[in-house]
TrEMBL record:
This is Pyruvate/2-oxoglutarate dehydrogenase complex, dihydrolipoamide dehydrogenase (E3) component. It comes from the Bacteria. It comes from Bosea thiooxidans. Its cofactor is FAD. Residues 351-454 form the Pyridine nucleotide-disulphide oxidoreductase dimerisation domain. Gene3D superfamilies: 3.30.390.30, FAD/NAD(P)-binding domain (3.50.50.60). Residues 17-317 form the FAD/NAD(P)-binding domain. Keywords: FAD, Flavoprotein, Pyruvate. Pfam families: Pyr_redox_2 (PF07992), Pyr_redox_dim (PF02852). InterPro entries: FAD/NAD-bd_sf, FAD/NAD-binding_dom, FAD/NAD-linked_Rdtase_dimer_sf, Pyr_nuc-diS_OxRdtase, Pyr_nucl-diS_OxRdtase_dimer.
Amino acid sequence: MSDGTAKAAKPAALTPDICVVGAGAGGIALATAAAAFGVSVVLVEKDRLGGGSGPLATRALVEAAAAAQAMRASGRLGLTAEAPQTSPAQLRDHIQRTLTADTANHSEERLAALGIRIIRGEARFASRSTIMVENQPIKARRFVIATGARPRPPALPGLATVPCLDVDALSDLTRLPERPVVLGGNATAVALAQALHRLGGRATLVAPEKLLPEHDDEAATLVRRRLLREGLALHEGSEPIRAERSRAGLRLVISGPSGEVVIDGTHLLVSDVPQPEIAALDLELAGIRHDATGITVDKGLRTANRHVYAFGACAGGAAKAGADQAGDDHAGLVLRSILFRLPVRIEPTQVPRVAWCRPEIAAIGLAEDAARAKAGALQVLRWPFAEAAGARAAGEAEGFVKLFADRKGRILGVTIVADGAGELIAPWCVAAKAGMTLAEMADVVMPALSRADASRRAALSTHMASTTDPRLRRLIGFLRRFG
């Protein structure tokens, strides 16, 4: 065989039990769990192992900003502190340290040591049973698509001419933007704008629609008040018209109540809703249906091709609600289906949704309108943190616990607004999984003088109607006769 013929020869097809396309956190979780059971796994990734660093870097930035704000607000607890000074170099080190542990867990060496074969390149389906990565064919028993989603830049005239950042660039910033203009009204945009403002940038937030449309209106109102109280410039319901380069950085022209409004800034940070990363997969050749929301899957996360699963932010159909928050849970369901042939079923209402701004918003289950449509006669129970002794002692009495339940006390939805809401929602995640009722949650003993006790008190308020029930009052009166 000549050298030319040898070079032209295609490599033999790989035939693993599972081929995972996409080495983000969810894809790696599935691959490592499968490898632990002795299953042969091929992991395909065209970019960085572990996925984008944006979400974790954003969280690290938000926590640093919260610490700075706590120093400013220490006077309410009787303390005097100097105004915080931001060190960009040390802040960057904090973000990098936060990312380091994840990087180690997602390293190519660790994955290879677990027996996972990593193939670098763009994957595309060549048939219903074959994926090609460059010229390498892969014929797996099962394929799992976990390519995630990426933000797409908006169709804004002049965007290419101005200094523009996205969330994945945060981990590499050596200096914070002096006057950042954040475009977007979703949870990520709000958290970023607030964090940059707290760290010394004169931030402006432009929300083309309303603020936090994915969360409860009353919860969004509390966040809006906090942002304005902290001095952040907020423009809601203002569509961006064009971006222009300026000597200082940029000008963003938006629509205002009485005409165009010009916002000056140094950097434009775009936080749009991520779009499924599936365009290059040639899904039609595999008989896989998809639309603008992502790959169409059923309640078992299986596509129209029974040998192919999809989960995470690239999944649409039955998995769309909360898909970007349920990666590890969905990975476990897919693995149970593939390895043990167990019937699995996703429950989008059991996936918590968290906005990491301050106050935080955490929710699980149905929103109020959806709960009302399902239950008809809806119980709406609310307990403010101003009535929780532990919250008052911490000087964090802003916010509330709001519960939605049907007439039988079955929990349909929960929203918590408070600093630390992402942790306070945890008992309700357990309750949703276990199918607990309000009465059962009211019987759970919470730590005394903790903010978590507000959840129990909200559940206990379901019994308030009983105190005025004439039949129950007569029964109590009758029993009193017996001592």
